[in-house]
Write a structure and sequence with these properties.
Structural class: mainly alpha
Shape: globular
Number of strands: 4
Number of helices: 5
Order of helices and strands: EEHHHHEEH
Strand order of the largest sheet: 1-2
Helix content: 40-55%
Distance between the termini: 43 Å
Radius of gyration: 15 Å
Oligomer: single chain
Largest sheet: 2 strands, antiparallel
Number of domains: 2
Length: 133
């Protein structure tokens, strides 16, 4: 089990885990990984984030998902599209040349526009709204 430490998050700055130290640069406020997990799980309903951030056997996977959860927690809740808009956005996301093929069915992927960072499907939807194909 990974020890929970306080991390510093700020909106708009990419979150990179620092080897051996879970602190982030701060402009706004501190949030523990546990608090970030609870917030993201409450928003998304995806309990698997807890396993991926804290218990996954691969430390690289834990670091990537921790960075993703902290980024999701520091951003405002995504606007949920309606069914028709979701279908249109999903078609655009599938044709995006910068998005990797999903694995594991979690909806997360790697984004070429963000230097390979993991992104959620809702982040992809927001990108498609901003920069339609």
């Amino acid at each position: 089990m990974v020890a929970l430490t306080t991390v510093w998050i700020t909106t708009g700055i990419p979150l990179q885990a620092i080897e051996g130290d879970q602190k982030k640069t701060c402009c706004d406020h501190a949030m523990s990984i546990a608090e970030a997990l609870e917030l993201v799980i409450a928003r998304s309903g995806v309990q698997r984030y807890r396993y991926l951030c804290l218990e996954h056997p691969n430390p690289k996977v834990r670091a990537e998902y921790t960075a993703l959860v902290l980024r999701l927690a520091s951003s405002p809740p995504p606007e949920r599209p309606g069914a028709a808009e979701s279908m249109a956005l999903a078609r655009q996301v599938r044709s995006c040349a910068f998005r990797s093929i999903e694995s594991g069915g979690c909806g997360c992927a790697h984004c070429g526009l963000r230097d390979g960072a993991k992104v959620s499907i809702f982040e992809c939807f927001q990108c498609m709204r901003t920069y339609p194909l």
